[in-house]
Amino acid sequence: MEIKRIFLCCGAGMSSGFLAQALRKAAKKKKVLVEVLATAESEVDSYIAKVDILLVAPHMKYVFDTLRQKAEENGVKMEIIPEDIYGEIDGEGLLDFVLEKLS
User: Fold this and answer.
1) Domain count of the fold of the chain
2) What pLDDT shows up at residue 10?
3) What is the rounded distance in angstroms from the CA atom of residue 92 to the CA atom of residue 64?
4) How far is 54 from 8, CA to CA, in rounded Å?
5) Hey, is 52 helix, strand or coil?
6) Where does the record place a coiled coil (predicted)?
7) What SS3 state is found at 71?
């Protein structure tokens, strides 16, 4: 099984950190290999080339176009995290979302 490299991005990296922890726990439970990075939007340039998918917090829509361009330039998929998954810190829901987008 191939490892999925996932980058969660939010304004300051705090809320994405909680969601990343829930995602890791869900992946472990389902025996899916993941490498999860959660950080602030300001760090995207440092990590974008090293991931399979960039997930952006729903409140970050104002930088969506800029981040999408960076993702496309690096051959990385990009999605906005669904608000219900983000708000509930739903690691299992996010894992299912990621696996669907990467399939």
Assistant:
1) 1
2) 83
3) 24
4) 6
5) coil
6) none
7) helix
Structure tokens at 74: 């690096």
Contact call for residues 41 and 11 (beta carbons, < 8 A)? yes
Q: Which two tokens stand for residue 77?
A: 């998929």
Contact call for residues 95 and 23 (beta carbons, < 8 A): yes
The CATH number of residue 40's host domain is 3.40.50.2300
Residue given tokens 């176009």 in the structure block:
65
- Per-residue pLDDT tens digits for 29-70: 999 999 999 988 888 999 999 999 999 999 988 899 999 999
Q: Determine the structural domain holding residue 63 and report its residue range.
A: 4-102
Full-model pTM? 0.92
Closest CA to 40 of 18, 69, 10: 10
For residue 27 the two structure tokens come to 């992946």
